[in-house]
C-alpha cells in the first residue's frame, strides 16, 4: 500500500516520498494493515543520513485517503477490538507528529475522516485546487466522531467554532476555504503538487517557513473561545442546536461536543487518550451499527453485476450523449448533474418559455458551482448543456430520458415519436415516479431497451437512483443504466415494474396514513412531530407540501387504482387543488409559507405555520378531546411504511432486504438511525412486531394486518437478515 522513494545522498535537500496506493481498490482507506505499513515505512527512514523531510502523496487519481475502512467497525468482535485499533492509530499518528524532520501531506482528491486526521498530524498540508479535492470529517454521518485525533487536533489548529462546524455537520470544505480557515497551508495546481510539496519540505527543513500551529486571533474568537464565559455560551449553543436538529436520536454529536470542550483544558497527550474509548463505545452502539451498515450496503449496490440468460456477466456501455425530453425542474436537474460528470446533454421542450426556464435553472446551478469551484472548473460542464424545441440530434443519443408531466397518454406519444427516429440500441428511459413502465411503453416495438430511471429531487443532492425493469428489459439495457448511475455518482437499486415501483408505493401508503390521522382528529402539528420524534427528517404533512400536493394527488390516484381495497383517495385532495393549494411551491398548502420579502418581529422571516382553514377540507372530522401521543403516531406511521416494504419484498418488487433498506432511507427518508425498514423490524424482533400490530389492528383497523412473510418469520424465529442479504462493501 505504501511505496517509499528516497533521494540519493548527493541530492540536497534529501527527501523521501511515500506514495499511498491501496492495491486493487479505487480508494485508499486506513485499515490495520495500513497502520502497520505506515510504521514500517517510517521505521525504514529512521537514521537515514541527511534526510531533510518526507512527502506523503496518493497514487490514486481521485483521492488522498477516503477515511478508515469501516469493515473494521462492522466486523469487530467487541468494543475492545475497536478501541485497540483506535489506540494503534493514535500511536502511529503521534509518531508522525513527533517526527524530527518535516512531513508534508500532498493532498489531491478526497481527504476524508482518518485521511484528514493523518494530514492534521503532518507538519504542512498542501492541496490542489481541483474540484475533486475536498476535505471533511464525515464520521458523524456514520454515528461516530473523528476519533483519530480529529476532535483534539482540529480545534487547536483552526479554532473551536470552525472545528465544531466540520465535526458536527460532516460538510465538505473546498481547498481555498480550507486555506482561509487555516486547515491547509497552500493551494496549488494538480500538475505542480509533488514539486510544491518537495519545495515546502525543503523550506521547512531550512526553517525558511514555519508551520502555523494555532488559529488566527480575532475579536469573536477572543470573546467566545479564549474566556470561560464565552466558551460556556459557545458549547451551550452547540448542544441546543444539535438537540433541536436530532431530537437526541443521534448520540455522536453530543459526545463530540463534550470531548472538544473537555480536551481544550487537557494536554495534547491527555486529550488524545480520551478519544479511543469514547469512539469504541459509540461504534458498538445501535445507531452507528445501523449507519455503518447502510454505508457498506450502499457501496455493495454500486458494484452490482448483471448476468444474461447463460449466466455471463454483461458489461454496461458508457453514456456519452444524453437527451432530456421535458425541461421541467426535474429534467433540468438531471441534465446539469449529467453534464457535470462529462456527459453531453441536450434538453428538449415543446415551447420557448419552459425551455428558457430549464436553461436558466442550468445557468443558476453552474453559477453556484463556479462560486465555490471557480469558473474554469465548470466552464466545460456549462458548455455540455444545450436546448432545443425540436428532437433534432436525438438520433445520436446513447440514452434518452423522458421527464414530461405524469400523463400516460402523453408519455406514450413521446416514446412512439422517439422510437420512430432513434436507432434500436438507444436506451429509452422514463423518469415517472408512479406510472407502470410497461404501460408507458405498451406501443413500443423494441421493448427490450425500455427502462425506468426514477430520480429524486433535488437530483444534485439525493443519492438514490431507482432503476425499474420490465420483463422485457434486456440485460444490456440494465447494465448500461447501472454504469450510468456510477458515472453520475448515484446509488442504484433495481426494482421490478409495478404501480409506484418501490419507493413511491411505500411513501404513498405512509402519506395517506398521515392524512387519515388528520381525518381521525389529530392535529397536523402532532402528526408531523410524531414522525420527527421517531427519526423521519421531516413530518409527512410537511413532506406533502414540499413534494407538491398536485404531484401527490396524481401519485395517490395511481396507487388507488392499483390497490383499491387498501387506498381510498379522499375528496380532500381534489378540494385542495380546486382552491389552488399546491404546497410550498405557491406558498399555500397545509401550511402557509411566508413570502420571500416578508419580515416579522425584529426583521426576522416568519416561520411556516399551519393554516387553520385546512381542517375544513376534512369532512366529518372531529378534533380529539385529548391530543394523541405524538410518539405513538410516529410509531404507527413508521410501521405502515415498513409493512408496505415487506409486501414489496413478498411480491418480488425488490430483490432483497438490502435493496429495500437503502431505497427507503436514501429515497424518502426512512429514519436512518434505524437502518431501514427491514433492519428496524429485525431489531424490534418479528415476533414483538406482530404482537404490537395485533394491538394496533384492534384499535385502528386492518391497516395494521401483518404480511404473511412477517408472520412466517415470527413463527420460525428467523429475521430478514437471514434471507441471504449480502451486505458487502468496503470503505
TrEMBL record:
It catalyses: a (3S)-3-hydroxyacyl-CoA + NAD(+) = a 3-oxoacyl-CoA + NADH + H(+). InterPro entries: 3-OHacyl-CoA_DH_NAD-bd, 3HC_DH_C, 6-PGluconate_DH-like_C_sf, ClpP/crotonase-like_dom_sf, Enoyl-CoA_hydra/iso, FA_oxidation_alpha_subunit, NAD(P)-bd_dom_sf. Keywords: Fatty acid metabolism, Lipid degradation, Lipid metabolism, Lyase, Multifunctional enzyme, NAD, Oxidoreductase. Residues 322-497 form the 3-hydroxyacyl-CoA dehydrogenase NAD binding domain. Pfam families: 3HCDH, 3HCDH_N, ECH_1. The keyword Oxidoreductase applies. Residues 500-593 form the 3-hydroxyacyl-CoA dehydrogenase C-terminal domain. Pathway: Lipid metabolism; fatty acid beta-oxidation. In the central section; belongs to the 3-hydroxyacyl-CoA dehydrogenase family. This is Enoyl-CoA hydratase/isomerase family protein. It comes from Nannocystis pusilla.
